[in-house]
Design goal:
single chain; about 230 residues; alpha/beta; TIM Barrel; globular
């Protein structure tokens, strides 16, 4: 039922099994980011990612994992008995069956969010899902992967996230705010890369510039550090 196999999510074996996903972990924690920060949340972490951001803290999700049927994922989620679910990765949209999983979770009555890099098409994501979509900065090393046409598919319930490495990233993010009028699309989040940009510096810049963005830090990192599954 949950048999591990050697194929990666984008392999022919994966394509032949659209109703299952390769899963790195499913766990209960507090949501550490976004508008739902602080809520007990089930995290469904999918395996695999086409990006290689320099600050990535989930490299363990690039490979491995186990194949699970969608109904088994829902059963594991239900066992935690909370209403918030976040589907994350890796890059969850790299596996095609992520879309039916999101739909099934919404049908089951969960408040569902999707953490995605924004490098893959979000047009077909169930509109009931809150999309928390990154725009990759120059400091990430993956700025060329940004798919700006995704902005057309965001609604006011969604969120755009910038993970900032330094002042240059901050200035670049300010330019994107103005160029694409991002605060008029949805809520915008600015986060510092832990260990690279001091949170207080970012907070001071935002206040000084009166930016219409939400400052956030990774709550789970301050509670538990870099512990997988938290």
């Amino acid at each position: 039922m949950n048999e591990p196999i050697s194929a990666m999510p984008d392999s022919p074996a994966a394509e032949a099994s659209p109703e299952r996903l390769r899963i790195t972990e499913i766990f209960l924690s507090l949501q550490g980011e976004s508008r739902s920060v602080g809520w007990p949340t089930v995290f469904v972490r999918l395996t695999g990612c086409p990006l290689r951001c320099g600050y990535c803290d989930t490299t363990y999700a690039f490979q491995g994992g186990e194949w699970m049927l969608l109904d088994d994922i829902l059963a594991r989620t239900e066992a935690f008995n909370v209403k918030h679910v976040t589907v994350t990765g890796g890059e969850p949209l790299a596996q095609k069956a992520c879309l039916p999983l999101l739909e099934k979770l919404c049908d089951a009555g969960y408040e569902v969010s999707l953490e995605t890099s924004g490098a893959l098409d979000v047009a077909r994501v169930d509109p009931r899902v809150v999309k928390v979509m990154d725009l990759k900065t120059p400091g990430s090393g993956e700025v060329e992967r940004n798919r700006y046409c995704n902005l057309e598919h965001l609604n006011p319930r969604d969120q755009i996230k910038f993970v900032l490495c330094d002042r240059a990233d901050y200035d670049w993010a300010k330019e994107q705010l103005a160029k694409y009028e991002l605060p008029h699309l949805c809520e915008v989040l600015f986060s510092p890369v832990q260990g690279q940009l001091a949170p207080r510096d970012l907070a001071d810049w935002i206040v000084a510039d009166r930016l219409p963005v939400r400052f956030q830090i990774q709550l789970h990192k301050y509670l538990w550090g870099d512990v997988a599954g938290r």
